[in-house]
Write a structure and sequence with these properties.
heterotrimer, A alpha+beta (743), B alpha+beta (269), C alpha+beta (155), A: 743 residues, alpha+beta, Aldehyde Oxidoreductase, domain 4, Aldehyde Oxidoreductase, domain 3, 8-stranded mixed β-sheet, 5-stranded mixed β-sheet, C: 155 residues, Ubiquitin-like (UB roll), DNA polymerase, domain 1, 2 domains, 5 helices, 32% helix, 16% strand
Chain lengths: 743, 269, 155
């Protein structure tokens, strides 16, 4: 039962999760399935040979290696824009290119015996020198793919730019921003189950954000007819951009096709930390110039994207970084270029924000340095350069056409909520007192792009024989509450209560088509499509009601009772199918924006940073469910703050991952974070009938630069101008020391 | 992950545990399991026989015994954290126990298990070292007392024989003491920890995560005994230490933190 | 194999278990109680939190044999006659869950926390939940839910 509290509709899906009845893939029972254990490379770069004889001799154990594969590379390549020589084998053949790459597959009757047997698969490594950092990779001294002749997977932008860009600037600053590698860490590690049915079709249950896209990728790689595969994505325990198709899912379907029995796999966390693709790992060098009264004139960025060992989506994200490089500022001249390089590390993919946090982090760092160079207040410099409210649609010098905005409104709301004057006064007091705990304030005005590649999503509304409704869409929830928010939208159009509207979970048989959930687009195109489909159903229903009940179409009142009656009547005539309408809705990207303010306390002796407050104004247009909206902001901000303060995935100089568990990968708990102070602002977009943009990733945008900025602000009296991410104790301590050495 | 196989026996008494430890190669004790089971899950440790002493309730106590406080080895961190005797007379130990891991860990983990594990980043070992505690151990040759200064012999190595069971820990009553623990995140092991206490009138200082075992900061203690102020004494913190460099912190940063924390701790005793 | 007798959610279960079998897997695989989730392998995330004799423990760090003779409560055993426990209800009302994977662990840890500290401050709640990790919620609503449950008497 749903309870409506003001306009905060509580979630329909909560009940099963609260009672421990979540339908996560690992929980799906499938009698007699074989367990799959992947044997993974222990070295970052080596020639290998695999001896599985000891393992295969164990009772009930089978071992498969690359020699058993009868299909080609993952993808399949060529993936548009990526160096075609950089395709990924499903199982490593003679070379491994990152710690965690699959070298063999163990099949067993029990999970435990699979782990036991995997230890007896002996891999002989003939080490090759690794290229661990992008800087090493760029030298091309060690080529991951000799046939490629380079380590550059893809590149773009305008590499030929010179400093003529900065003509007329009174001041030009340069700096860098390293957006450190992060592991996505959804709490649910990946699972997959696959089984071939008696009709030969393979059904795979996957913890995926993109069932339809996965189906095509799997079919393509294995050379199968897509109609012979069904992908089901039931409850997914968090995706964050990383639960997209990778080799494991393809292998599971391949195994199901080969074997008489079903197969199941669940990764361990240590496995996930190296096998589930990572995020961020982008290095930006920038130059920003303007007039002496703080007007920005020119901005140049050079981006090096770490692609990891096998380039996937992450290698393309710098396109979005460059596209969004202008941020909320009216900068007349912008030039940018990027190169994505392969390294002997876990591949990089999208991770909550996917290329846009990097853009925010870079421009905000640059604006702070620019303000400091001129001795101007960084908040005032921002205000002076904000794109004004009356120019939309507005095309930036980096090529993005913003739909709607009110950046100054967001800034003012945030400063007001933060109590900026009191904060500055407290900061001044502590500076005078020479307090060990200094206060820092950081302000970031951000913008981001959602539905970035202007996609089209599918929405369908079906009225069932009992008068209730079913909603289908290509989008699915990995925690965002689609079962409730989509039901809200369709309920408002149909006049049916939310309880009577069911939302179908990801299933390529049950849902004709779809793009999946990423890019914060579910509401703006998925729910918009569902709304249009609902409107189509209403139109038909009114006409049919007129026909069956004799009322005028425009006088028909649709509610639970009329729906039930109508559905029964038309079903009796075999016409229920007319009350199913689908719609495909495509729209251009939208641009949510906001302002995040961070207040930090820095212990200048130890370097330890405590985040005291984070004020977040997030404007993503029309809000469908305020409670769900806030929850998305909370989660995004927590991730952005964590990038600023805690998390970093580290490799040593041999390419060995150092942070493969939650003990050494600094994923924070509730004890490490404060309450979030959220403020709403709604500036609708003309892009879709809902007026909604996507808020799912907004929280990650301004929070990271705001915290970094706040720490630099706290340390200004010490001459510190920059602190590397994450701004943890050691990086702060080093920054203070270096600044003191200079003075 | 799944541990490798092992046999399991439950000991009905300390003597039986000693016997069982001698009955197999690679036999180990199980108390709360929160040091051992994580190692087994990652297969960093393997054993042939697990001897479970977790139900030996006679080893759970905190009581005054003359001028010492006697703590049963199976006393859980959660119980140490709230024990009135400790809070009154050995507060740093209660405080450190209150910050081991998280509440779930503290419901299971024991002081004996923690200490016998010999983890250089364990807080309790440092406190015991600072307090010159004594460890009561029972083995095939009967009971003996090991002064804590001889107990920690290397990383994850202690003076316990393969068939010995730690049964009791004896600490002095102290009037003043503190444990300062620097962590990146609340549930983390100490990046660096500093214990300081007045034991029989003398200021003693212990360090966590500054070497392969918990260490006493002898240089600092000497300086304090000679009348140095906290900052001056703290400057000698690094003497005799070899802090590690790892994903949490560099050796240099650890050395710096230790000095700062020593200075702050000394100001409190 | 070792014989164990464990009361789970009020029902006694006699079973043969391998000594190496973790309580979490015993609950999931042998008893079919899939609500207890396994999110890590270093006892860090707390998704596997259950109550043993009323106190929160990480069932991934307890062997099934250690639970012999004890009482275990899992998320499935919390609701009474189908009615959500006040902690579950508070999580629902204040949107303390998104994907739900960490939720059983948080709920059980919160129940234990409130049993030991019925009126915790915000700081005490945060510290009391430091053994549970969540990637979706940013913890804000979880903390608020525990405050609400506490205000309503928690049990």
């Amino acid at each position: 039962m749903t309870i409506t509290v003001a306009d905060r509709v509580l979630r329909k899906e909560d009940d099963r999760f609260l009672r421990g009845q979540g339908e996560y893939v690992e929980n799906i029972p499938l009698e007699g399935s074989l367990h799959v254990t992947f044997v993974r490379s222990l070295l970052a770069h080596a020639r290998i040979s695999v001896d599985a004889s000891a393992a295969a001799a164990l009772p009930g154990i089978q071992v498969l290696t690359a020699a058993d594969l009868d299909c080609g590379l993952f993808g399949p390549p060529p993936l548009p824009g990526l160096n075609p020589a950089m395709g990924r084998p499903l199982i490593a053949g003679d070379v491994v290119r990152f710690v965690g790459e699959i070298v063999a597959i163990v099949l067993s009757e029990t999970r435990a015996s699979g782990v036991d047997a995997a230890e007896l698969v002996f891999v002989d490594y003939d080490p090759l020198p690794p290229a661990v950092t992008p800087q090493q990779a760029l030298t091309d001294e060690v080529l991951l793919f000799p046939e490629a002749g380079t380590n550059v997977a893809t590149s773009g932008g305008s590499p030929e730019h010179d400093d003529a860009l900065f003509e007329g600037c009174d001041a030009v600053i340069s700096g860098s921003l390293v957006s450190q590698r992060m592991a996505p860490c959804p709490l649910e590690p990946r699972s997959a189950i696959a089984a071939r049915g008696p009709d030969g079709r393979i059904t795979a249950w996957l913890t995926t954000q993109t069932p339809h896209i996965d189906l095509l990728g799997i079919a393509g790689t294995l050379g199968l007819d897509p109609s012979q595969i069904r992908i089901i994505s039931p409850d997914v325990g968090g995706g964050f951009g990383a639960k997209l198709l990778s080799v494991e899912e393809v292998l599971m379907v391949w195994l199901a096709g080969r074997l008489e029995r079903a197969v199941r796999w669940t990764e361990t966390r240590s496995e996930s930390m190296v096998a589930l693709h990572h995020g961020r790992a982008q290095h930006v060098e920038f130059k920003l110039g303007g007039t002496s009264d703080g007007k920005l004139l020119a901005y140049k960025l050079d981006v090096v994207q770490d692609g990891g060992a096998y380039p996937v989506l992450g290698s393309f994200l710098p396109n979005l970084t460059l596209l969004m490089s202008s941020g909320v500022y009216a900068i007349p001249r912008i030039e940018g270029a990027f190169r994505s390089v392969v390294t002997n590390t876990t591949p990089i993919t999208s991770f909550r924000g996917a290329g846009r946090p990097e853009a925010c982090q870079a421009i905000e760092r640059a604006v702070d340095l620019f303000a400091a160079e001129l001795g101007l207040d960084p908040i005032e410099v921002r205000r002076r350069n904000l794109i004004p409210n009356d120019v939309f649609p507005y095309t930036t010098a980096s090529g993005a056409t913003y739909d709607s905005g009110n950046y100054e409104g967001a800034l003012d709301l945030a400063l007001d909520a933060a109590g900026i004057d009191e904060l500055r006064a407290e900061q001044a007091r502590r500076r005078t007192d020479g307090s060990v705990k200094q206060l820092g304030i950081g302000v970031s005005v951000y913008i981001e792009i959602t539905n970035p590649v202007a996609e089209t999503e599918f929405g369908e509304v079906e009225i069932r024989a009992d008068g209730t409704a079913l909603v289908r869409t290509g989008s699915l929830s990995t925690g965002q509450g689609h079962e409730t928010t989509f039901a809200q939208i369709v309920s408002a159009r149909l006049g049916l209560p939310i309880e009577s509207i069911e939302f179908l979970k990801g299933d390529t048989d049950g849902i004709a088509k779809g793009m999946g959930t990423y890019g914060s687009k579910s509401t703006q195109i998925g729910a918009a499509a569902a709304q249009l489909a609902a409107d189509g159903v209403v139109e038909r229903a009114k006409a049919m009601a007129a026909e069956y009940f004799g009322t005028a179409a425009d006088e028909v009142e649709l509610d639970a009772d009329t729906w039930a009656e109508l559905a029964a009547r038309v079903d009796a005539d075999g016409r229920l199918g007319e009350l199913t309408v689908s719609h495909e809705f495509g729209a251009p990207p939208t641009f949510p924006f906001g302002c995040h303010v961070a207040v930090v306390e820095v212990d200048v002796e130890t370097g330890k940073v405590e985040l005291l407050r984070l004020i977040a104004v997030d404007d993503a247009g029309t809000i469908i469910n305020h409670m769900v909206f806030e929850g998305q902001v909370h989660g995004g901000v927590a991730t952005g703050v964590s990038q600023a303060l805690y998390e970093q995935f580290i490799y040593d100089e041999d390419g060995m991952p150092m942070t493969t568990t939650f003990v050494n990968y600094a994923f924070p708990s509730a004890a490490d974070l404060p309450l979030w102070e959220t403020v709403e602002q709604e500036t609708p977009t003309p892009a879709n009938p809902l007026g909604a943009k996507g808020v799912g990733e907004s929280g990650t945008m301004g929070s990271t630069p705001a915290v970094q900025s706040a720490v630099v602000d706290a340390l200004a009296p010490y001459g510190v101008q920059h602190v590397e991410l994450p701004v943890n104790g050691e990086n702060v301590w080093r920054a203070i020391r270096e600044a003191q050495v200079k003075t | 992950m799944i541990p490798a196989e092992f046999d399991y026996r439950r000991a009905g008494s300390v003597d039986e545990a000693v016997e069982l430890l001698g009955s197999a190669e690679d036999a180990k004790l199980l108390a709360g399991g929160h040091s051992l089971i994580p190692l087994l899950r990652l297969r960093f440790a393997r054993l042939s026989l697990l001897v479970d002493i977790g139900q030996l309730d006679e080893l759970r106590y905190v009581r005054r015994d003359g001028d010492r406080i006697a703590i049963g080895a199976l006393t859980r961190h959660a119980d140490l954290a709230q024990d009135p005797v400790l809070l009154a007379s050995c507060a740093p130990l209660a405080d450190a126990a209150a910050h081991v891991g998280d509440p779930q860990v503290r419901h299971r983990g024991t002081i004996g298990g923690s200490v016998a594990h010999g983890d250089p980043v364990g807080d309790l070992g440092t406190i015991l070292l600072t307090l010159d505690a004594d460890l009561v151990v029972v083995g095939p040759d009967g009971q003996r007392l090991i002064p804590v200064g001889q107990f920690f012999t290397g990383m994850f190595q202690t003076a316990l024989g393969p068939q010995e069971v730690l049964t009791e820990i004896r600490v002095p009553e102290i009037a003043a003491g503190t444990y300062l623990k620097f962590v990146r995140r609340a549930q983390d092991w100490a990046t660096v920890g500093v214990a300081a206490a007045r034991v029989d009138g003398r200021v003693q200082v212990g360090l966590t995560s500054m070497g392969a075992t918990p260490l006493r900061a002898h240089g600092v203690e000497e300086a304090v005994a000679a009348g140095a102020a906290p900052a001056e004494a703290a400057a000698r913190t690094a003497e005799g230490t070899e802090p590690p460099s790892d994903a949490s912190a560099s050796a240099e940063y650890r050395a710096h933190l230790a000095e700062v924390l020593v200075r702050r701790a000394l100001a409190q005793v | 194999m070792t014989q164990v007798s464990i009361v789970v959610n009020g029902d006694r279960h006699e079973a043969d278990v391998e000594p190496r079998q973790l309580l979490a897997y015993f609950l999931r695989d042998q008893l079919g109680l899939k609500g207890t989730n396994i999110g890590c392998d270093t006892s860090s995330c707390g998704a596997c939190t259950v109550l043993v004799d009323g106190e929160s423990v990480k069932s991934c760090t307890v062997l099934a044999v250690q639970a012999d003779g004890h009482e275990v409560t899992t998320i499935e055993g919390l609701a009474r006659d189908g009615e959500l426990h006040p902690v579950q209800q508070a999580f629902h009302e204040l949107h303390g869950l998104q994907c739900g994977y960490c939720t059983p662990g948080f709920v059980m840890a919160s129940v234990s926390l409130l049993a030991e500290n019925p009126n915790p401050t915000e700081e005490e709640i945060r510290e009391g939940l430091e053994g549970n990790l969540c990637r979706c919620t940013g913890y804000h609503n979880i903390v608020k839910a525990v405050e609400l449950a506490a205000a309503r008497g928690g049990t």
